[in-house]
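Thread: Newbie trying to understand structure tokens

Hi all, I'm a second-year student working on a class project, and my supervisor (Dr. K.) asked me to get a predicted structure for one chain before our next meeting. I've only ever worked with sequences, so writing a 3D structure as a token string is new to me. If someone could post the tokens and maybe explain what I'm looking at, I'd be very grateful. Here's the chain:
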Amino acid sequence: MLDRYDVAILQALQADGRLSNTELAQRIGLSAAPTWRRVRRLEELGVITGYRAEIDRRRLGLGVLAFVRVDAERDNAPAMQALEAALHGMPEVLSCHYISGAGTFELQVLATDLDAYSRWVRDVLFRLPNIKDVHTSFSLGEVKAGGPLPLRHLLP
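---
Reply by user tm_fold:
Sure, no problem. This is what the structure looks like when written as tokens:
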């Protein structure tokens, strides 16, 4: 499905999503027109899903990053769908994963401070349908975040 040029495009755009098509073409060793066609094809295939700026959350006053394990009743499909929809629509929730083992969901949640996080749990999270229990761990510092996807397995 993907050849070495496609992988090179993905690696380059992960490193710098603001590359112009001309710059991208130079980096991967193709001319501009086929590079543009390849990028469009990768977008159409859903391999490239979007472009965004990386923003330092701390500089915007979002000092608390919490990892929240939510326990929910798994055998009530309508309640699970309502809970998933509610979590999906919350701007404080950076990511939500349906997990194995203890718990049902693992969330990454941002808040300005511990008081704001506590209010969010009490006033928002605990009011959602189907919540049984919540367990929180707080990030004490980032070692690595938002790294590029490993793509070596795509190369021959």
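A couple of things are worth pointing out once you decode it. The chain has two domains: 4-53, 58-138. The beta strands are 64-72, 93-98, 105-111, 131-138. Feel free to ask follow-ups in this thread.
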